[in-house]
Amino acid sequence: MFDIQPSSTTPIYRQVVDQVRRLIAGGQLRAGDELPSVRSVADRHAINPMTVSKAYSLLEAEGLLTRRRGVGMAVAEGAARASSSDDRLALLAPALEAAAQQAQQLGIAADAALASFHRHLLAHPCHPTDPSP
Fold it and tell me: Helical H runs in the chain?
């Protein structure tokens, strides 16, 4: 479920938080869907369980997740999918800003960077419920 990049400058707990937010906003996670246990995420990615627990706790405090006794964490009933493409694009903006900065630092022309992004986007097809960007 998660794509954890240990070498990233973004802390691991923040990577988990951001990915859960995007999965909820994009409709891949819906109210009532269970998240993998802290232990399974920690074991799968060889990270400290407290890191995963911190991420889940932050998401619970935001009202996106709810703790189910004996079951684990699930998407909260009040967690709604982002209503517009602008809301979803806002969640993508930090990654795009970082990619733009890296492209500039590498001396990659804008058209080449856009073409590369387009190839990567097509290589990872998604199944949006809304065809808008």
Answer: 12-25, 38-45, 49-61, 85-106, 110-123
Contact partners, residue 129, CB within 8 Å, separation at least 6:
27
- Residue 42 structural domain: 12-75
Contact between residue 75 and residue 23 where contact means Cβ atoms under 8 Å apart = no
Report the amino acid identity of residue 67: R
The number of folded domains in the chain is 2
CA 18 – CA 21 distance, rounded (Å): 5
Q: What does the alpha-carbon distance between residue 10 and residue 13 come to, in Å, rounded to a whole number?
A: 8
Residues 71 and 22 in one domain: yes
What predicted TM-score, i.e. pTM, was given to this entire model? 0.71
Q: Give the C-alpha separation, 59 to 69, whole Å.
A: 17
Per-residue pLDDT of the chain (133 residues; tens, 9 = 90+): 899 999 999 999 999 999 999 999 888 999 999 999 999 999 999 999 999 999 999 999 999 999 988 878 999 987 766 556 777 788 788 889 889 999 999 999 999 999 999 998 888 776 554 444 4
